[in-house]
Amino acid sequence: MKEFIKKCGLKEVIRFVVTLLIYIFWVIWLGNYWFVFGIPIIVDIYITKKVNWTPWKKREGVNNWFIEWLDALIFAVVAVTLINIFLFQNYKIPTGSMEKSLLINDHLYVSKVAYGPRLPNTPLSIPFMPNTILGGNIKSYSELIKWPYKRIAGMGTVQRDDAVVFNFPAGDTVCLEYPSASYYQLILDEADYIKRYDDSIKHPPRTKEEYYSLGRQELLRKNHIVVRPVDKRDNYIKRCVAVAGDSLQVIDGLVYVNGHKEKDIPGLQYTYTIQTDGHRINAKKIRQLGISPSDMHYNPDNSLTIFLTNSMVEDLKKNVVVKSIENIIEKKGTYDYRMFPFDERYPWNLDQFGPIYIPKKGVTIKITLDNLPLYERIIGYYEHNDLKIKDGKIYINGKVSDTYTFKMNYYWMMGDNRHNSMDSRYWGYVPEDHIVGKPKFIWLSLDRDRSFPMNIRFGRMFKGVN
Predict the structure, then answer these.
(1) Each residue of 85-124: pLDDT tens digit?
(2) Angle ∠(337,338,342) on CA atoms, nearest 5
(3) 91 φ, ψ to 5°?
(4) Which class does domain 89-176+224-246+415-464 fall in?
(5) Where are the chain's structural domains?
(6) Are 353 and 332 in contact (CB under 8 A)?
(7) Alpha-carbon gap, residue 426 to 339, rounded angstroms
(8) Which of 273, 254, 272 has the alpha carbon at shortest distance from 264?
(9) CB 3.0-4.6 Å disulfide test: which of 234, 263, 267, 321 passes with 101?
(10) What CATH number does the domain located at 254-327 have?
(11) How many angstroms separate the CA atoms of 51 and 74, rounded?
């Protein structure tokens, strides 16, 4: 051993042992023991040195500055890519759907270890690039190699009330002209426009399926459509209000899970109308409450429509110019065609929704033509079955079926800004294979309404995410 250490050098032996132990731990964690064949490579890199594994630079002697710079760059790209896959990733809040818990331009540290890192479905991609480049016309990844879904062991599982980062479930098909909108929602909007036009000219009514087909044709005619794999869909962040096996219902804007009202969330906010005595509320007071000018709108009658938390409501009630504050809640039975499952048999809206069951892996349910709208995307798309309806019967993989057993766990995600959030009420369940990670803390926060350096919200930096 002494001769071995003397020959190789103590420093090199220590580096070899540490690297080998980390690699072995990684192989065990990954659970793919084909990677043990990588051990001889590590041995050769540090001990035998028969092969030059960095052919862009000389193994002996001094390399020029460009080669040294290139070597450092390659190492950094590989290291950061592995860190982003297995440990953590940064995420920026782009919209106000989680206010006032999380604010626009909060930059988050998102732990991949919290729920277990997910191996990429499309490993061939340009590092650190968005899904599309050059104006959205070219993919930054290749689907030449596709890996099945696999999640390796993590510190835990998604829990009720967790803030979670996940891939947008309705982002499998994307309209490049409206990349942040749901493709299916855009079809429904087109279908609704055609239906209203038919009504205006007294055209004989068509079926729901006909309007949907016409809406899809119109959307395809006017826009460019692309299809994306799971891991290349946009990242969203919402709060998990119900986990697999739960039953959920929204009554008058309040969420009930398994018959119990959800716990109080300080940042939760709704839309309110404030009636004043004719004077506007002092702008300084509005800023002190943490309300952005873009979150408020003065109406012609001098009333104010605004997003508020419970604590903000209580504070504003004390303001001398405020006469009344009313929570805007949609009535029960008012059908919103944008709401999941997009069927008039389920006349739901933002504030009156459900009851709905959140599917759990291994659970078998009875399926009928009436409840199929709730589960058809799960059966036919998320879990890759051939689903058809023929002669009033449901066929799954060619067989008549009246039951279905779920292959994955699902979650129900909602934004804390309950009246300004595109969430599960619009596109349904989030499958477990879409889960990315758990935000742990805010490492940077910038106020969009201020200029540098006043825009830095120091009080939010390194604040934990609850």
Answers:
(1) 999 999 999 988 999 899 999 999 999 999 999 999 998 8
(2) 60
(3) -145, 135
(4) mainly beta
(5) 2-86, 89-176+224-246+415-464, 254-327, 364-405
(6) no
(7) 5
(8) 254
(9) 267
(10) 3.30.70
(11) 18
